[in-house]
Amino acid sequence: MNTIQFKPIYQERVWGGRWLAGKFGRELPGANPVGESWEMVDRPEAQSVCTRTGKTLRELLQQHSAEIMGPLYDPAQPFPILVKWLDCSDRLSLQVHPPAKIAAELDGEPKTECWYLADTTPDAALIVGLKRGVTRENFEQAIQDEALEPLLHRFPVKPGESILLESGRLHAIDAGNLILEIQQNSDTTYRVYDWGRKGLDGKPRQLHVTQSLKSIDFEDFEPAVTPASSEESESVLAECPQFRIRQRQFVEGERFGPPRAREPMILSVVEGELREGESGEVYTAGANLLLPYAWDGELICSGCCMALVTDRFVDV
Prior knowledge:
Number of strands: 21
Oligomer: single chain
Mean pLDDT: 96
Number of domains: 2
Number of helices: 5
Shape: globular
CATH superfamily of the largest domain: Jelly Rolls
Radius of gyration: 20 Å
Low-confidence stretches: none
Largest sheet: 8 strands, antiparallel
Helix content: 10-25%
CATH architecture of the largest domain: Sandwich
Structural class: mainly beta
Order of helices and strands: EEHEEEHEEHEEHEEEEEHEEEEEEE
CATH class of the largest domain: Mainly Beta
Distance between the termini: 17 Å
Strand content: 35-45%
CATH topology of the largest domain: Jelly Rolls
């Protein structure tokens, strides 16, 4: 079975820009800021469409679930991972995703995600977790006083770094980050603070303070990023119950094929390019591929290439 690539679904966001055009040479719709490109998604409100067949991801799973996901996969279940590119030209809201137990209470979905920093401006930063010693009482008072920022753990970042955000971790992406986000298939986000900003319609965006306060882990102090790795051929960036993400450095002519223990994988090209077989399609930086359980081909590195490989997101 061949690799599967999907057409991107672009989302306008007030904090977005046109970075994807400059970085990856993509043709973006309209002139408004594009904040997200949904690269792989199987949700009622959004369906990835295969570039080769024109079928949606949902149709592919219904018709070929055993070949794509493995013989034990229930085709009625949605694809468990959502892959996005995020153009954070401006700061995002301060937000949280609910842990599983809280999500059920709030009629939402848990979302654990990993951010890989593909590019940054010199002054780029992330906001993740709280400064050591901050209490829930401090936090609630700061919301009322509109003075949250001094309580937040903000730190500079650079390309190649990454961080895992499990459900319940307070976070915001500061301006100047181009991020590959690999996450649970969920779209539940609670905004606790939006820096006084207005949306594209000129109105203040909705906040979810009550839900956020129920979801935030108030013992999550000053988490650290996983540093950039340029020397090892393979390193693990994130490992959690929902998925594993490895960074792979390829040298010219290196071949990447199916693992010995068959399972579906997602391969995200971050730098360089990979070719399908000796004369097949070339996948350049920015491409995200679904490598099915029954994939029997190989990808060959042209020059040097760096990619992320996501696996262990389904029982096989």
